[in-house]
Structures are given as C-alpha cells and as structure tokens.
Amino acid sequence: MTCSRLTASMLLALTCGTASAFDFRSVGAPAVVLYDAPSARGAKLFIAPRGMPVEVVARYGDWVKVRDADGALAWTEAKGLAARRNVVVKAALARVRAAPDDNAALVMSADKGVLLELLAPASGGWAQVRHRDGIVGYVRAADIWGF
Predict the structure, then answer these.
(1) Distances in Å between the alpha carbon of 72 and those of 35, 53, 66, 135?
(2) For the CA atoms of 48, 54, 58, 62, what is the dihedral angle to 10 degrees?
(3) Pick from 61, 15, 67: which is nearest to 39 by CA?
(4) CA distance 140 to 9
(5) Among residues 104, 103, 32, which one has the least CA distance to residue 62?
(6) Pairwise CA distance, residues 61 & 133, whole Å
(7) What is the pLDDT of residue 142?
(8) 90-125 confidence digits (pLDDT tens)
(9) Cα separation of 137 and 95, whole Å?
(10) In sequence order, what DSSP letters do the residues of the chain get, joined into one string?
(11) Which are the contacts of 71, defined by CB distance < 8 A and separation ≥ 6?
(12) pLDDT at 121
C-alpha cells in the first residue's frame, strides 16, 4: 500500500512538473479556427492568423487548448500549429537593441502587437528576435509575450 502511494505521488509530481513547463507554438497554417470545445462542431470563437503565438495548456487527442496573449482560452486542431516560435510585443513600445544590453545601439522600435520571430533566449532577461523585414536584435523578455 505504501509503495503504491509513493509511486502515485512521484507520478503526480512528474506530471505537475511537465504541466508547468511553457509550451509555446505559433499558428502555422494560413489561419486556424479557435473553438470553444475540442470539436469542429463547437462554437467558432476566433480565426487566428498565421504566425500568432499561442501557449498550449492542454491536449485532447488531435486537439489542443491554447491561451493567447490576452489570456483567452480556446481549442484548435494541433495540426494547425507550428513549432516555429513567434512572440508578440505586449509593451506600448519595445526597443530592439544590437546586443542584450540597455546601452547597446537601438536597431528598431516595435509597437504593441508587432510579431517577431524568436531566434533564441539570451541571458539576463533578453530574447534574440527577428522582424519580418530581416532586422535582428535583442528585446527585453518583459516587453514580449510568447517567450
């Protein structure tokens, strides 16, 4: 009896650890429909455009429950998401710099809602990103969502 409780506790701890890890994806198809339930018969809530970042919070067969940058939850088919990571600017203005340092040269500014491709996390709360115009730089992680 004690052994089975210990095993169950260990499995629960492992499951909770996995569930707390962030699983961000981006819409890979030209667009995906977000539903209120894991079924095409559910109510259509929103059409998510290509590149929109989402956080996968649950899986149910071929369906995933996702959270968007505003915190809204919805369901979509997993096949419509891509592993390529995009982030969205959540600050009123994000400064993209040449290096992960507040004193580095400014390479561009991005308004709230601008999509950026996540290239790599950097140390000290920075992320390396690329704009669709090809501009590459570093942005503070606090200024973006999807990281």
Answers:
(1) 11, 12, 8, 30
(2) 50
(3) 61
(4) 38
(5) 32
(6) 37
(7) 96
(8) 999 999 999 999 999 999 999 999 999 999 987 789
(9) 9
(10) -HHHHHHHHHHHHHHHHHHHS--EEEE-SSEEEEESSSSTTSPEEEEEETT-EEEEEEEETTEEEEE-TT--EEEEEGGGEES--EEEE-SSEEEEESSSSTTSPEEEEEETT-EEEEEEEETTTEEEEE-TTS-EEEEEGGGEE--
(11) none
(12) 82
Q: Go through the chain and tell me how many residues it has.
A: 147
**Model pLDDT for residues 32-53, shown as the tens digit of each residue:** 999 999 999 999 999 999 999 9
Structure tokens at 73: 């939850």
Buried b (16+ CB within 10 A) or exposed e, 53-87: bbbbeeeeeebbbbbbbeeeebbbbeebbeeebbb
Token pair for 78: 């997993």
What is the reported pTM? Answer: 0.80
Comparing CA positions, the residue from 104, 107, 91 lying closest to residue 142 is 91
